[in-house]
Amino acid sequence: MLARSVISVMVAVAFVVVAAGRPDWRSVSRQPGDAVSGLPIRMQIESMIAPESDRWSVLVRSIEGNVVYEHNPDLHLQPASNMKVLTTAAALDALGPGWTTRTSVYATAEPAEDGTVDGSIVLYGRGDPNLSGRLSETGDVLEPFRQLAASVRARGLVRVTGDLVADASYLSGPPHGSGWAWQDLQWHFGTEVSALSFNDNLASINVLPAEAGSSCLVTVTPDVGHVRIQNTATTGGSARISVHRGVDSSVVEVAGSLPVGHPGVTVEIAVHNPPAYAAEAFRQALAEAGVTIEGGIRVLNAYDERPGELELARLHEVASLESRPLADLVRTTNKLSQNLHAELILRIMGREAGPAGVPCDEAGLSVVRGFLERIGGASEGMVLRDGSGLSRLDRVSASNLDAVMRTMTIHESRAAFIDSLPIAGVDGTMKHRLGGIAVWAKTGSLATAKSISGVVTAQSGRRFVVTMIYNDPGGRTWSAIPTMDRVIQLLARSG
């Protein structure tokens, strides 16, 4: 509550600084003689940036818009997870912080008096990223599906003669972002994107030693029957475990060895075919609620031909589950830098507010570009390829991020946006960084890119908007983080 109070005060006191209408940040004048943008600060920041100046894009302004320091502000670099700043700001602008989505269960026929549906039931996803244990007090990953199953059972339905259809057709587009690296796709940050997603489209692979010379013990959490294990790992020898899943396979290969007495290894791995994964979990929840599915599981995606009996107008909704408001989804996206959330928000935005006739990811990027153009934050050379920043093809400048960050400090959705940013020393990706300094900032990290953008409050009460991006194609980027932190510390101490 303290953090929220501080944010509220900051918004109320510091951010309502312009008259009606959206400003074009390109028109803000530079004032080298401004007391805040004095020579000592400029020189000190320059001394930090200069040794690798061609790899930086930096822009620091006072909250009033005066330039305190700039270095290649229009140089387009990989933004890493600062792409989420663009995605979430555009979504709040287009849809509003209170927007929600819904997951539905449909039946192809009304239940008979004995509770039988002579046909199939459909689990229809509309992009809710929280069909997981994230909101459960007990961490039960099946809780959302248990709620749906209980509602289905409450309608008197106990038996389905047909199939359970996993319908992910609400969102179109490829399962991965353009420009994602192959090596990312089996890990927690590179999961497939689907309108019907469960447990962040992840499964935990747990490997434990057994008796010497025997196979290691391998379990899957949650075990809903979707992920299959091929285990050749043995007990004995050194600790060396390999976990691998093919891009288009649900078989996880576990190899290597663990010595007797080793505490074990747990790896989070992305699952293939998220709609089927969700359907397996829902089927388990239905069985526990006393509802039997006699058929199998079918998956329906956006590009599949839709059977006539599954046309939405002909279906009967028997249960539904409302998502959390968009403000909450944005908070998870930015605080935790959650890639799947960002990609789902991008596609939902495209479906709800973007142009028709194009894949939802492309439509969402069109909405982001339109937002940037309206606030004067677009630029020639800017490249937007995904919503999360995992794409190696994204190119964004400090000026682009600065325009969005400062727009959102005066936007009607400013409270939701500022509340979504990690707080230094308190939470999210800033929990162990810059403690004791009043900073709300989104971070970004790839092997080839580091970035940060946010709002810094100095000891004097002055406020700054800071955007910094550093790239190194060779992957030597970790040294940029302490440099960014020193710049922020300098601003925090300024008068």
Strand order of the largest sheet: 2-1-20-19-18
C-alpha termini separation: 29 Å
Percent in strands: 15-25%
CATH architecture of the largest domain: 3-Layer(aba) Sandwich
Q: What's the total number of strands?
A: 20
For this structure, the CATH topology of the largest domain is Beta-lactamase
Helical region count? 11
Under CATH at level 1, the class of the largest domain stands as: Alpha Beta
- Structural class by helix and strand composition: alpha/beta
Low-confidence stretches: 1-38
Mind summarizing the main beta sheet? 5 strands, antiparallel
- CATH evolutionary superfamily of the largest domain: DD-peptidase/beta-lactamase superfamily
CA-based gyration radius: 25 Å
> Helix share of residues?
25-40%
Q: Which outline best applies?
A: globular
Briefly say what this structure is.
The chain is an alpha/beta fold.
